[in-house]
From TrEMBL:
InterPro entries given in the database record: Phage_holin_4_2 (IPR007165)
Pfam families recorded: Phage_holin_4_2 (PF04020)
Protein name: Membrane protein
Entry superkingdom: Bacteria
This protein's UniProt keywords: Membrane, Transmembrane, Transmembrane helix
Transmembrane segments: 6-22, 29-50, 56-75, 87-107
PANTHER family assigned to the protein according to its UniProt record, in alphabetical order: SLR0284 PROTEIN
Length: 132
């Protein structure tokens, strides 16, 4: 469920920034969902290969900045392979990567942990739907 929420929010961020910025062009929301899916897959399979040496060089002090820059680089790679998605310049890609990172952080911070549900601090959805 969290994965689907992340994909849809990333697609909404990409589509929204394409609406606001003339340097970014996305054909439709379906394309934005495909971009979010490809971005997630590339970050999972290739992103760590690029991030790890850069984090070693910076002694793991600039991990967030390295992650945003690598995500921007992967967005430019997706731009090269898709005709329905264009980013003119590197800075708009950095802005998309930053916005996706902030949106993901907000989702991760707002979702309750299993420990919070077990302690009764947060009532889970299943227990709130249960009929007593």
């Amino acid at each position: 469920m969290n994965l689907i929420l992340h994909l849809l929010l990333d697609a909404a961020v990409i589509f929204g920034l394409a609406y606001l910025m003339p340097q970014i062009d996305v054909k439709n929301f379906g394309t934005a969902v495909l971009i979010a899916l490809l971005l997630g897959l590339l970050n999972f399979f290739v992103g760590w290969v690029i991030r790890f040496p850069l984090n070693l060089v910076t002694f793991f002090l600039l991990t967030g900045i390295v992650r945003i820059l690598v995500t921007a680089l992967l967005l430019k790679v997706i731009d090269k392979f898709m005709d329905s998605f264009t980013i003119v310049g590197f800075w708009p890609a950095v802005l998309i990567a930053f916005a996706v990172a902030v949106a993901g952080m907000l989702i991760d911070r707002s979702s309750p942990t299993p420990e919070m549900v077990e302690s009764g601090y947060v009532v889970s959805l299943l227990s709130s739907l249960r009929l007593a």
